[in-house]
């Protein structure tokens, strides 16, 4: 048997739609795999009652098929489904690492990205790598054209998760199909700033680089209280605020000394909007960890 812990992730980060991602040090999924003649899945943990155990409808079933590695797979969910924190990617990445070790496939973490992305296709309809890449590799990742670049980073973050469900499919439906040249130039500048900030472990640059005028405003409309939460986080010391992945989680980089204040301010602002929420005081961290 192999046991793997895989982290929540935040994709897009505002300016890096379908490209940028980071691994978080909490929350996490725990996945255990054992060899079997056919793949079976057992679910437990947060939101597990909403996730099908049928291998044809579960992300880890697609991963097992992609790796030709049938197994008994047990998933303990720590990352809530439909959270914007890479719930499906955490399970897919953990399964990919565990099955790779279980069957001695000898694939590198980068080589496992396509297999884990097949799991993402089950829930979103497309095999995106922006969440599975950081879940596998850790740090800050850039996924494009079948290639993934990862850099170590250690930026303090607050991920605030409201008790709202936003499906990935719904969040993709609101994304505009076109934009102006001005907004495109602005996004490129922000993305470059964010990437430099990650390389320098500079929360100020990372926060400034999250600013984006096309995808984020459209998705923010799906999150009750978003604008007030954003304002509260900035007032408390966050260096930037954006929607995490497809939402509804909201993510804010900050300096270590401000993280607790930012977390409290975001929870309070959601509460004033009539929405319960939970804030994770986290940071950019390592990817999936394998335990024998």
Summarize the structure.
The protein is of the alpha+beta class and 292 residues long. 37% of the residues lie in helices and 25% in strands.
What does this structure look like?
There is one protein chain. The chain starts with a strand and ends with a strand. Strand 8 (242-243) and strand 9 form a beta hairpin. Helix 9 packs antiparallel against helix 10 (259-272). The chain has two domains: 2-152 and 286-291, Ribosomal Protein S5, domain 2, CATH 3.30.230; 156-283, Alpha-Beta Plaits (2-Layer Sandwich). It has helices spanning 59-66, 87-102, 109-124, 132-137, 168-173, 181-200, 203-208, 215-220, 226-235, 259-272, and strands at 2-11, 20-35, 40-45, 71-77, 140-144, 147-151, 156-162, 242-243, 250-253, 277-283, 289-291. The chain is of the alpha+beta class and 292 residues long. Strands 1, 2, 3, 4, 5, 6 and 11 form a seven-stranded mixed β-sheet that branches. The model has no long low-confidence stretch (mean pLDDT 94). The protein is built from ten helices and eleven strands. InterPro entries: GHMP_kinase_C_dom, GHMP_kinase_C_sf, GHMP_kinase_N_dom, Homoserine_kinase, Ribosomal_Su5_D2-typ_SF, Ribsml_uS5_D2-typ_fold_subgr. Catalyzes the ATP-dependent phosphorylation of L-homoserine to L-homoserine phosphate. One of its GO terms (molecular function) is ATP binding. This is Homoserine kinase. Pfam families: GHMP_kinases_C, GHMP_kinases_N.
């Amino acid at each position: 048997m192999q046991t793997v812990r895989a982290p929540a992730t935040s994709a897009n980060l505002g300016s890096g739609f379908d490209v940028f991602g980071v691994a978080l040090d909490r929350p996490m999924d725990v996945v255990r795999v054992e060899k079997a003649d056919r793949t079976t899945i057992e679910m437990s943990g947060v939101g597990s009652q909403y996730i099908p155990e049928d291998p044809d409808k579960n992300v880890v079933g697609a991963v097992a098929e992609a790796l030709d590695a049938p197994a008994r797979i047990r998933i303990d969910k720590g990352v809530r489904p439909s959270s914007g924190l890479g719930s499906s990617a955490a399970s897919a990445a953990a399964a990919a690492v565990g099955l790779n070790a279980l069957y001695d496939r000898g694939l590198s973490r980068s080589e496992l990205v396509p297999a884990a992305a097949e799991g993402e296709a089950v829930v979103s309809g497309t095999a995106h790598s922006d969440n599975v890449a950081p879940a596998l590799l850790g740090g800050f990742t850039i996924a494009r054209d079948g290639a993934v670049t990862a850099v170590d980073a250690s930026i303090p973050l607050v991920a605030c998760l409201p008790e709202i469900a936003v499906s990935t499919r719904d969040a993709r439906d609101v994304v505009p199909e076109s934009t102006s040249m001005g907004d495109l130039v602005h996004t490129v500048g922000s993305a470059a700033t964010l990437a430099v900030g990650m390389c320098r472990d500079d929360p100020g640059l990372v926060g400034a680089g999250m600013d984006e005028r096309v995808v984020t405003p459209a998705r923010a409309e799906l999150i009750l209280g978003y604008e007030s939460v954003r304002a509260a986080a900035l007032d408390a010391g966050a260096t930037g605020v954006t929607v995490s992945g497809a939402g509804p989680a909201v993510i804010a980089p900050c300096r270590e000394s401000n993280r607790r204040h930012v977390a409290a301010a975001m929870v309070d602002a959601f509460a004033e909007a009539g929405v319960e929420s939970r804030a994770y005081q986290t940071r950019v961290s390592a990817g999936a960890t394998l335990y024998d």
